[in-house]
């Protein structure tokens, strides 16, 4: 029973044995011949960064891929049956107008007039302006927009800027990058193997009981609060009142709010804010991370941005934007000029229409997934203003990694166990609506059978 | 005399006043109305990362751009006359075969069959294989190649992996990213304003006296040694013997060598290694950083890679590649799929030919620049196996920032002062060969006049 041992790995938080590269203990020993004065075995005397030793295992999403591949290797006859509702990876082709932005962006590099080399590390001026205008209705200024190769990379750069001494607060469950990069930066202690939480991170439990919105007021103060809405993985979209209370709290406690709005355009409910900057006073306390990935089909194309308001300050009065600018100019070299050309097309009226159509498509999938689990009889969350459906599992399933394994084995559907997003996700399963519609329909059929 | 004060900034290492965003002290004070319970002035209580306060000024290359723009603003009539031999930015269009790789890479994203979303964070398998085969002649394995959005970004990710506790050694002068990211990561103390060096970095002086190759043996041991060959800014390409001695030293001292080979294909002298892995024993001690930027015209397109050998180990025996893989998967999301398609085309036989032609073009420019300064009567270095020419200035010029200003003012040519690359660069000027040939010819004419 292979899956039993897989579950054991999961319980200890994905053990070292599941890492990408299995240590090759025998390598390097044959190299002594190169130099008679060499250090024995040629192992360097460089100490490993202790913060990396704290990380419990591989990053979640590659881990899911490895488990999928392991299953296929054991059951090659099932390879063609696999349907991925796992990582939130877009599947629909890039629509014509946006595509033409990319293609023309590439083509012009072959001409003397159109060629361009290094651009501003912060992004092309026109793209920054269009983001501010089209997406923020000029609530923010172009000079506050930093164009990047994606939200995940920006989160690391934000951590880089804050450095090792801040205390971070995260929703639990949450997108694993917030916690993992906090650990990598040295902000945390070790992971407590009983609670699965790292010391020195504030875990803000999000559950059906609090509408998946964190009760930061009841938690210890943190310097940096990570909040994602519409949420990955729970699919919850925070209301205006919730966000107002969070901004107020951050102002009172002197915290900086890092607001991850990567799924904002999926919001269809009226009155639900699509940006933290719709909230009064947010420009004094919030940074917003954003991305074209999920609704322009840019997951592989790579384009995002971060807004750092000009008035946001550290305790000493220095501007956060100046330090973020230093990270962007020193540790980054601008998003690809071809890709930025695609970003400009996204912000044309035609591009915006195409995006809306793509979102309709994925939200229709989300609806099918919701319906399926309602019919199965499990409580379902998310999937209306977000591309993720978050399913509450009955205790009989035996935890979310067990459910993941069972569904992979019985239905050949890849999901993501809630526990992968933090201890608070245990007992839940995340399903992504980004698959092609016919795959979603087929997956729904099989899921119903699997849970019968 | 505006330039006098500019020189003063330069002497203190580019002061805070030259940063991208001048602090707007008055901002944020008008926001108190948003919430009666707000912290006064709404300044956060988050401490600024102390490592950022140590950074002396803005990153060098944007600083050069700002000075250029300031000059144009003061002398708008000169705007059209400006020739940039400053930052190493490519100017020639991307040749047809490589371009077709990019264009087709974009086009296929518009089709159902060709669409792809997230790829492996380490890069497409085929690209990793082709890099190992075509560029390294299988000296390394595809699994040791990590494809990225460029060498600059990879250097930060390497620092991220090593963490705050290592001691880094750099060539002096050197590409500023090594030092700046060391400071940002907290590896260093403050900058000594008399020597312009940061405490806790080993500066390895490179000068005409030692052929611009560092004498690491005479310096204190470092954990991580950054070595760039062909060198930016000096243009020196290290010989096989020099690299052998460095690898031997790193093995003896247990140091890890980070070898920056971004300019390797510019090497035309027979016998000069294009990769550190041509040196026996290097796979136990070296990481190699590399890039398509400079010879495929990809400075704005963004594609590079880093090789981390599978046998390279930390002191505790753990594999460096595992930790670098953790950074790449957690803090990065893969290079753009469109761009990777262009990278594949670079590695076709046709792409390799196109690259060779581009390099010929730029090396011809370098030759013109060399000749010009030889005629002026200044000693000239580099420019034969590298796209940079490094000119020794006579004392009468009054330092490299003065020379930069004088040349900008008299000849409207943008260069880079050697001092921008570290204290060891004082008294030198770097000129880039990446301009169009007719601009280089014109610049050479004006430079001769300016120095008459």
UniProtKB/TrEMBL annotation, chains A, B:
Domain (Aminotransferase class I/classII large): residue spans on this chain: 82-446
Keywords, comma-separated and alphabetical: Aminotransferase, Pyridoxal phosphate, Signal, Transferase
Signal peptide: 1-20
GO biological process: systemic acquired resistance, salicylic acid mediated signaling pathway
Cofactor requirement: pyridoxal 5'-phosphate
An example Gene Ontology molecular-function term: pyridoxal phosphate binding
Keyword Transferase appears in the UniProt entry: yes
HAMAP family: DapL_aminotrans_1 (MF_01642)
Family affiliation: Belongs to the class-I pyridoxal-phosphate-dependent aminotransferase family. LL-diaminopimelate aminotransferase subfamily.
PANTHER family associated with the record: AMINOTRANSFERASE
Protein name as annotated: Pyridoxal phosphate-dependent transferase
Species: Nitzschia inconspicua
Lineage: Eukaryota, Sar, Stramenopiles, Ochrophyta, Bacillariophyta
């Amino acid at each position: 029973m292979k899956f039993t041992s897989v579950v054991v790995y999961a319980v200890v938080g994905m053990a070292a044995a599941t890492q990408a590269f299995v240590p090759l203990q025998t390598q390097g020993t044959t190299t002594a011949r190169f130099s008679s004065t060499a250090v024995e075995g040629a192992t360097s005397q460089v100490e490993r960064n202790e913060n990396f030793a704290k990380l419990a295992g591989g990053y979640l999403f590659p881990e899911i891929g490895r488990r999928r591949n392991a299953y296929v290797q054991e059951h090659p006859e099932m390879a063609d049956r696999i349907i991925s509702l796992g990582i939130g990876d877009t599947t629909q082709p890039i629509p014509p107008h946006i595509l033409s932005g990319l293609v023309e962006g590439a083509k012009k590099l072959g001409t003397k007039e159109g060629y361009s080399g290094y651009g501003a590390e912060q992004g092309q001026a026109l793209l920054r302006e269009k983001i501010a205008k089209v997406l923020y209705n000029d609530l923010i200024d172009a000079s506050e927009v930093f164009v990047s190769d994606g939200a995940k990379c920006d989160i690391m750069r934000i951590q880089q800027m804050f450095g090792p001494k801040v205390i971070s607060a995260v929703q639990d469950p949450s997108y694993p990058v917030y916690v993992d990069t906090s650990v990598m930066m040295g902000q945390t202690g070790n992971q407590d193997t009983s609670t699965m939480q790292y010391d020195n991170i504030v875990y803000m439990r999000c559950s059906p009981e609090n509408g998946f919105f964190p009760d930061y007021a009841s938690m210890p103060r943190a310097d940096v609060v990570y909040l994602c809405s519409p949420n990955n993985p729970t699919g919850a979209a925070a209301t205006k009142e919730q966000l107002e209370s969070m901004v107020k709290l951050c102002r009172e406690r002197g915290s900086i709010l890092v607001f991850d709005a990567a799924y904002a355009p999926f919001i269809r409910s009226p009155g639900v804010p699509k940006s933290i900057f719709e909230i009064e006073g947010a420009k004094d306390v919030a940074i917003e991370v954003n991305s074209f990935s999920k609704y322009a089909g840019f997951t592989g194309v790579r384009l995002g941005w971060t807004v750092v308001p000009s008035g946001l300050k550290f305790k000493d009065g220095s501007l956060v934007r100046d330090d973020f600018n230093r990270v962007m100019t020193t540790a980054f070299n601008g998003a690809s000029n071809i890709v930025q050309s695609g970003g400009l097309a996204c912000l044309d009226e035609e591009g915006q229409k195409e995006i809306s159509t793509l979102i309709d498509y994925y939200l229709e999938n989300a609806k099918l997934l919701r319906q399926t689990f309602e019919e199965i009889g499990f409580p379902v969350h998310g999937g209306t203003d977000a591309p993720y459906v978050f399913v509450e599992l009955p205790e009989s399933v035996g935890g979310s990694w067990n459910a993941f394994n069972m569904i992979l084995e019985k239905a050949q559907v890849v999901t993501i166990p809630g526990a992968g997003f933090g201890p608070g996700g245990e007992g839940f399963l995340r399903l992504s609506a980004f698959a092609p519609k016919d795959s979603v329909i087929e997956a729904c059929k099989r899921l119903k059978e699997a849970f019968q």
